[in-house]
Amino acid sequence: MGRRVTDHLRRVYREPPRAEGVFESGTDGEESAAPVATESSDAIGLAWEQEWEQAVFEAAVARVREQTNPKHFQVFDCCVRLGWPTAKVAATLGLSAAQVYLARHRVSRAVKQAARAINAERVLGGFPSEPRSSSAS
């Protein structure tokens, strides 16, 4: 469901402003400005999407941090956020490589589920969405 919100906002931000149609009818080189506006709006949309995904990720990590075993979260933090190799994490925390892989997998799965839940909450919380066709019988 979170993808629908993202797609909607991407579409909204990519649409040219309605007043831009007035400028297109001009003959003083106004057409050359249109591609620049499109490129900048694409860059803005991409930057917004990256910030959105990062914010959702951070919120999901904060939720999972409260619910998981602190040692497992520490493994996740070292592997994913700090980028440490498995051997270094295992040696630093006194775990085997298999324990590191398992803890990272479990916490990663929990973060993904929390991110999906956050996106679902935001969709249900009143973010604009596409008009749905009435198919209820």
Task: Describe the overall structure.
With 137 residues, the chain is mainly alpha-helical. It is 74% helix and 0% strand. It has a single domain (2-17, 30-124), classed as Arc Repressor Mutant, subunit A. The protein has six helices and no strands. The two termini are 22 Å apart. The model is unreliable at 20-26 and 128-137 (pLDDT under 50).
SSE arrangement:
Layout: H1 2-14, H2 20-24, H3 33-67, H4 70-81, H5 86-93, H6 97-124
Helix pairs in contact: 1-3, 3-6, 4-5, 4-6, 5-6
How do you describe this structure in short?
This protein has 137 residues and is mostly helical. Helices cover 74% and strands 0% of the residues. The protein has a single domain, classed as Arc Repressor Mutant, subunit A, CATH 1.10.10.10.
* CATH topology term: Arc Repressor Mutant, subunit A
Order of helices and strands: HHHHHH
Radius of gyration: 22 Å
User: What is the CATH architecture term?
Assistant: Orthogonal Bundle
Strand content: under 5%
Q: What class do helices, strands and sheet pairing give?
A: mainly alpha
Distance between the termini: 22 Å
Characterize the biggest β-sheet. Answer: none
Instruction: Tell me, rounded to a whole number, the average pLDDT.
Output: 78
CATH superfamily: Winged helix-like DNA-binding domain superfamily/Winged helix DNA-binding domain
Number of strands: 0
Domain module count: 1
How many helices? The count is 6
Q: Judging from the principal axes of the Cα atoms, what is the shape?
A: elongated
Low-confidence stretches: 20-26, 128-137
Q: What CATH first level would be assigned? A: Mainly Alpha
